[in-house]
Write a structure and sequence with these properties.
heterodimer; A: mainly alpha; two-stranded antiparallel ribbon; about 0% strand; B: about 190 residues; eleven-stranded antiparallel β-sheet
Chain lengths: ~180, ~190
Amino acid sequence: MSDRYTATAKTLHWLIAIMILTMLGLGFYMHDLPLSPEKLKLYSWHKWAGVTIFLLVIMRLAWRLTHQPPPMPSSIPRLQQWLAHSVHVLLYLLMFAIPLSGWLMSSAKGFQVVWFGVLPLPNLIDKNKALGDLLLTVHLSLNLLLITLLLGHVGAALKHHFIDKDTVLKRMLPTLTAPSDDSI
Amino acid sequence: MKRLALALSLAAALAPTAHAIEYTKVQADQSSITFSYTQMGVTMDGRFKDFTNQLSFDPAQPTNAKATIEVALASIDTGTAEGDDEVAGKSWFNTKAFPTARFESSSVKAVGDNRYEVAGKLTIKGQTREVVVPASLTPQGNAGVFAGTFTIRRGDFSIGEGSWSTFDIVANDIQIRFEITALSGNP
């Protein structure tokens, strides 16, 4: 078994990572803007990107379930391995729940999601102002939880790379040279 | 046969009363004015909660019909409080200076099958345009339901100025749908 993630897994991981970070920034920025054409445009882009991430995450989960990831280095204590795995599971859950909560919020607020302005997604629930406001809180809270977990996820990866000097981060880094040329 | 003849003669005797129907008493709670438009490819809709309506319509003499509708623009419901505030402002309706939109019919033409073409003047934000509004009449007991949809271009009335004046985000075409229920009889 390889000691690295597959190229597909890496591509999806980094693509989704970049999109999530951009979306976090965009989400907080656009919410505080006064109503303007710019704001409406950014909201639409945010929704289009959200649907795109949702689809990429489905692909990623399908890949993950059919491809065994490389094992964690045996130097890592059991508890830490279990903790890392738990965070990964939670991140997957949030990557589904966050776009879904956005889609639900959009439906409840009476704004249908039309992917790239072309493909209308069905409204999951009827227009309902109170529920729309509640879903905004849910969407925000899930994102705050995501930020917290991401800090742990990124912090742990950096700790393994720079302090423990093990292979944990390298398993997910793009391979610039042939894997056999890599020495740790 | 005798019964049929009786029924026919009765119907003939009653027929003149049908000509006496004139819809005049508008039922505000059974009337609505809604609109829809597209925003970044998404169809949005809303309504006006407050409007008044003078109507006199005799189906036997549609050309004599008259209709005047005044819409309190501040009563708009765009679906969000932020949207309602925005469209009341200067670049949209400027409701402080122009609180009402007004339609006044000038002529009514029957086009058959309980359908009519109502020509008139539509004034929004101090600008008046000639419009032709298709309307259908559906009698319901002693009430008549007038319904129709027509399209205006917001650019024609300077609705959405400044940064809103391009149509790439909020479309120019606005579909307006009305459904007005009026009872026959004296108002």
